[in-house]
Specification:
Layout: H1 3-25, H2 28-42, E1 59-67, E2 69-72, E3 80-85, E4 92-100, E5 104-111, E6 117-123, E7 128-135, E8 148-151, E9 164-173, E10 177-182
Antiparallel strand pairs: 1-4, 2-3, 3-10, 4-9, 5-8, 5-10, 6-7, 6-9
């Protein structure tokens, strides 16, 4: 085989490998692997403790979905509302409709004690997918205004480039679980 033929064969093999990799990395299989194995292990972000004043994430809290949710308005943080369990012995839940038009958004959950925490799920037709979870610390509250990132790219079909709507559900577990929101915004 001539040198030109070998070069052409190697070039074709490289192109096919590259095209296969592009197809694979835009597939559901890679997406699932990335969101369940790679992202949690590789994810590190510096702790940011500061409220955001406004949100440009297009979403709506579904008030009709409130289940055991009480709203509190702390005087020391004007404009902010704290969503927390009304009956501290039961889990509180509420849903949010969101346009998935970005890879990440920020939320402001808070908890105290190992028996309390906040989880966020994507609701699918017959199941739900966990996108976020945090637990409280023993004997201390997590910081007010601590920003937690939610990877919206990990929703079902999140690897696709187009924008689409999703329904997400917050679960507030334990007596000291909270989600902070401002002017109806939960995602920032």
């Amino acid at each position: 085989m001539s040198r030109k033929a070998l070069y052409a064969l190697a070039l074709c093999a490289a192109l096919l490998s590259g095209m296969s990799a592009v197809v694979y990395f835009q597939s559901e299989r890679w997406h699932t692997f990335y969101c369940t194995a790679v992202l949690p292990a590789a994810r590190w972000s510096p702790k940011v403790v500061a409220f955001r004043e406004c949100s440009n994430v297009r979403h709506t809290v579904i008030v009709d979905s409130f289940e055991n949710v009480r709203e509190e308005r702390p005087e020391e943080y004007p404009g902010w509302t704290v969503l927390t369990p009304d009956d501290k012995s039961r889990e509180a839940r509420f849903r949010v409709k969101l346009l998935r038009d970005r890879a990440e958004a920020v939320i402001f959950p808070r908890a105290s004690g190992a028996d309390s925490g906040v989880e966020l799920f994507e609701l699918l037709d017959s199941s739900r997918r966990k996108l976020f979870g945090m637990a409280g610390r023993n004997g201390a509250w997590t910081d007010v205004a601590s920003q937690y990132n939610v990877n919206l790219g990990c929703v079902f079909d999140g690897y696709k480039p187009q924008d689409f709507g999703v329904v997400l559900e917050f679960a507030l577990k334990g007596p000291w679980a909270q989600v902070w929101c401002k002017n109806g915004a939960v995602f920032f």
